[in-house]
Amino acid sequence: MEQGFFDTSNELKKQTYYAEPAQNQSRLKTILISPKFYDEYPVKKATKAMSLGTLIHSYLESGTLDNFIIMPKFRRTKEALEEKAAWLEQHAGKMVCTEDQMEAVQCAAASVERNGIIKQLLSISEKEVGCIADLFGHKCKGMLDLVSTHGNLIADIKTTRRHTTYDFSRDCVEYGTPFQLAFYRMLYHSITGNWPKVAIVVVETLPPYDLTLYWPSYSFIEFGNERVEQAFKILDQCLENGHFPGKQTDIGGMPLDLPYWAYNR
Known about the structure:
- This protein has 2 domains: 1-44 and 115-245, Alpha-Beta Complex (Lambda Exonuclease, Chain A), CATH 3.90.320; 46-110, no CATH class.
- It is α/β, with parallel strands linked by helices and 265 residues long.
- Helix 4 crosses helix 6 (99-114) and helix 9 (177-192) crosses helix 10.
- Helices cover 46% and strands 20% of the residues.
- It is globular, with a radius of gyration of 21 Å.
- The strands form 2 sheets. A 6-stranded mixed sheet has the order 1-4-5-6-7-8.
- The longest helix is centred in the last third of the chain and has 24 residues, at 218-241.
- It is built from 10 helices and 8 strands.
């Protein structure tokens, strides 16, 4: 696939994009944990929280609940497990969820209807836009949740159990959101020549299922830019040396201190 934006509106196109060999931000940022972690990148198993996040994510991108279906409860007998497998096969391609998950998605959908600015952003944006471009001499790819058709704006959809801006900002640090958004901005710039504005649409996965539109600050994005550049430098060094070391590079061990905020408690 050549550099540019790619339609991933159907499963075949999406799988073609996923199969394209290129650096993605999810794996690249693990090199900041250690090159060894990057080299042996583990595949994460979906958790219940991730599943609910995926369901809400899917609704925000599709704007409809038509593809959602509640899975009946099955017992744990051999016969029931066979019935469950047959039911899942019958409903392949559907967004399968529990009753509780469906209720949460419906509440999130109601919140969207009440939030005019987010509803408008969703209505003027292309959803799940794949992109491939060269960054720092490496072929890279990313899946942009929302790309505005009204100017240089990209947005990412996040779900959270947090209710305050401060707590969500901590989530951003923990999950590498500045890295992700900086990486996506670089891809967009490499393709279009323009630096886009970046927004984050955040949906709470607990009552009251509120929505918030965040505009990351300049320092937020610069923090991400520095981390992306650092990751590529480490990757180039490892490729040049043919070695991906672990965290401990000194045989004498590593120092350990507490985070700065612990001393203020």
